[in-house]
Design goal:
two-stranded antiparallel sheet; mainly alpha; elongated
Amino acid sequence: MKAVITFIFLAILFAIAIFVGLKNDTLVTFNYLIAQSDVRLSVLIAITFGIAFTLGAAISSLLYLKLKISNKRLTKKVTRQTEELAHLRKLPLKD
C-alpha cells in the first residue's frame, strides 16, 4: 500500500513538472563551465529535475543501505550477547 501511495505521489509530481515545463517554452542562454547554449526553458527544467531526482534517490539509497548494514551488524551483536548471557546464566554461581 505504501508503494502505491508513493508511486501516485511521484506520478502527480512528475505531471506537475511536465505542466510547468509546457508553460515555459522560451529560449534561455545556459552558461556552463566550458561553453554555452540556447535551450528551451522547459528542457532545462526537465534536465535539472531529472538530475536532482537521480541524485536524491542515489543519496537516499546509500543512506538506507548504510542503515540496513548497521542494523544487521547490531542485530548480530545482540544475538551473540544474548547467547553469551544465556550461557553465563547456566553456569553455577561461585561464592
